[in-house]
């Protein structure tokens, strides 16, 4: 059974750096054609893709947030880490990680999601 | 960046109704379009990938169609458990992804 679980602080202060960890089980981060995405959702708003990383260590970031994001993985620990610098109250959201399956004919799709972790930015 | 526009943003329908949700891309994305369902307080769930492929375990009343810039998610006979928000997502751009703004399906 494939599962993903997000963990990190519930509350961060403005200007601080947020570090979130996604721990996966049921598959390996070294599996070809697989990766992990981070997505967030502010209260009452739509989903926003943030970043992804693939088994070959290929990384991509949201254009609007690229300067603030870093994604990395530790295959031995089955973990993907996202850091976001200079947090602001507008970054208050539920943050999800999801497994990506990638194919030439199918593109990338997120077939299994974690339950999400809620982060509030406030002083 | 590719923009994804969903319409309508919300709709009211009755159990048994046929429901159609549209997603339009700002440029051609071939068939690299996915659909997700999200219920309140829950993580999104994959329904359709590559525009028309039904994810394993998803009821056959859900279907997807389209290519290029215009896509459709259809629920052939709306069931009580289908009241939720639906999102499209493009994966055409190699280094990025985008979600639509969502369509909330409510009970009439």
SS element count, helices of chain B: 0
Written as H for each helix and E for each strand, in order along the chain, the element string of chain B is EEEEEEEEEEE
From the spread of the alpha carbons, the general shape of chain B counts as globular
The tally of helices of chain A reads: 0
Question: How would you characterize the overall build of this protein?
Answer:
The complex is a heterodimer of chains A (123) and B (108). Chain A has 123 residues and is mostly beta strands. Chain A has strands at residues 3-7, 11-12, 18-25, 34-41, 48-54, 59-61, 69-74, 79-84, 93-103, 107-113, 117-121. In chain A, the strands form two sheets. In chain A, strands 2, 4, 5, 6, 9, 10 and 11 form a seven-stranded mixed β-sheet that branches. A four-stranded antiparallel β-sheet of chain A has the order 1-3-8-7, with no helix packed on it. In chain A, strand 7 and strand 8 form a beta hairpin. The mean pLDDT of chain A is 97. Chain B has 108 residues and is mostly beta strands. Chain B has no helices and eleven strands. Chain B has strands at 4-7, 10-13, 19-25, 33-38, 45-49, 53-54, 62-67, 70-75, 85-90, 98-99, 103-107. In chain B, strand 4 and strand 5 (45-49) form a beta hairpin. Chain B is globular, with a radius of gyration of 13 Å.
Q: What tags apply to this protein structure?
A:
heterodimer; A: about 120 residues; mainly beta; four-stranded antiparallel β-sheet; 11 strands; B: about 110 residues; seven-stranded mixed β-sheet
